[in-house]
Design goal:
- The protein is an all-alpha fold.
- The protein has one domain.
- It is globular and about 50 Å long.
- The model has no long low-confidence stretch (mean pLDDT about 85).
């Protein structure tokens, strides 16, 4: 059982994560999971966020389907499925401490790289869909954090008007595949998982609504820097937790 303090921390993490999701179309798991692992095991946090992602991406994606760059979805999907199968296998077999340290290093390094690098705008080869799909699939299954990997690729493959809708759609596809694979491994039968999901659905919905409203009002560069600064702090916190286990 969680204390009220724990529940407040869990709800705050979910609200912040899905406000970011409403703003950008990605980032929910990268924000939520590093905070949630301070309250629940990683193998519980990842399926929980995946279930919340599934509902939120359905809600947001259904409003923007006509803007999706479908050819990019077709390119990424088979390699993403391959990566998810590999990632689920690692999630149920690898020691939790090692997984937490990997998550922390990934989140921290990704945040610092995005904060320090110069923005690139020139298109890249569609062949980048192969490593993007596999790597994004592995990290989606392990930590739910494939979003930044997919967005790095999509930002240089699709028009700005299609970016958010295409990102949401690939995350939705990832959620469908993970739902099937997590179900086959028993990760969706953990005690309390569905109760947590039901309690946190309204928090998730409010976060997505707030983020969607802010999407049209905040300058994208400000949102981007604030997001990656938050992720750098989260990644450092997860590394510290992994080292103390």
């Amino acid at each position: 059982m969680h204390s009220w303090v724990d529940w407040a921390g869990i709800a705050s993490a979910v609200f912040a994560a899905y406000t970011i999701f409403g703003l950008t179309g990605f980032g929910s798991a990268v924000v939520a999971v590093p905070i949630l692992v301070h309250f629940v095991p990683l193998t519980f946090a990842v399926p929980l966020v995946m279930l919340l992602d599934f509902v939120s991406t359905l809600a947001v994606g259904s409003l923007n389907w006509r803007l999706v760059a479908r050819q990019e979805i077709v390119r990424l999907l088979p390699f993403m499925i391959t990566g998810i199968v590999v990632g689920v296998t690692l999630l149920v077999k690898v020691e939790a401490r090692l997984l937490l340290l990997t998550l922390g290093v990934f989140v921290l390094s990704n945040a610092l790289w995005n904060l320090l690098r110069r923005a690139q705008t020139q298109p890249i080869s569609p062949w980048w869909s192969v490593p993007t799909g596999v790597t994004g699939g592995v990290f989606s299954a392990l930590f739910g954090t494939g979003g930044p990997i997919y967005t790095t690729y999509l930002a240089r493959r699709v028009e700005p008007a299609s970016f958010r809708a295409t990102t949401v759609t690939i995350i939705l596809m990832s959620g469908v595949v993970r739902l099937l694979t997590f179900g086959s491994t028993g990760l969706l039968r953990q005690p309390g998982l569905w109760t947590h999901w039901l309690w946190l659905l309204p928090v998730c919905g409010i976060g997505v609504y707030v983020g969607s409203k802010l999407h049209t009002r905040l300058p994208p560069p400000v949102v981007r820097r604030a997001l990656f600064a938050l992720l750098a702090l989260s990644g450092a916190g997860v590394i510290a937790r992994g080292l103390t286990l």
